[in-house]
Amino acid sequence: MTAIFSRRCVIASIDTMEAAWYHKDFTAFLVELGPEIYTRIRSEPISLKNRASDLKRLFDLNPTMLVDGEPLASVLVERAVQLLPPEPEYEWSRPARLTPEIETFKRTLEMDGYTVADGALRRILPADIGLPETESELMRLLGKHGLETPKGHLQQAMDAHARGNWAGANGQIRTFFDALLDAIAERIDPSAKALPTGQPRRSKLASHGFLSVALNEWADDGKGYINGLVKRLHPAGPHPGLSDEDDSTFRLHTVLLATTLLLRRFDRGPTAAP
To answer: What is the value of pTM for the model shown?
Structure first.
């Protein structure tokens, strides 16, 4: 079964419950989940933190587990959503102060392509984009081809985004994209190692047909898609009209989708045509 939510989001949902509940609340929820789950979670006097860790471990060992026909991941995330404070009723109302756990949970939801409106989950992007699955495939392909440096930058970008460090996330997103294209250029043509990083190596990718000129992926005059994406990732600040969070999330989502396409292409063969 395909996951709807990333592990990062599920773990954040459990952290949200741990921070909001007493033991009795946590126990009542476990009982709702059924004996297959509550019998595998330790009871008091074990600390609530350790009981939450048991639930995280159970999920990690059984990521496709179902609860009454619904994925455990979905049950956990949707229950945590119910713990989020309501939006202010009036424009002049002061929004509720969020705990660090809730702030992290909301950011991980956005990274997975969701937001919360009127107490319910809403998709930011169409379902068939499948951001959690895209991220998982991207990490798998980076590992498969030994692209550890770009992989490290991507992980740092996602960690920074989850913490709300937008500037740090943007910097790592940009560095990940640059490092990935540089590394692919070296794999396709070892002579690219002698070239400066950045545009010269991307031009090398285009000369080998990896970046398509016909599909406007690359243009030497700077008007191709990859050219434009690089420029969009490099401005000094967020795009006018967008919040820091919106801008960083846009950059992350765009780069996840674009680089997954490129890595799938590379995985088919270093000189695979688009």
So the answer is: 0.68
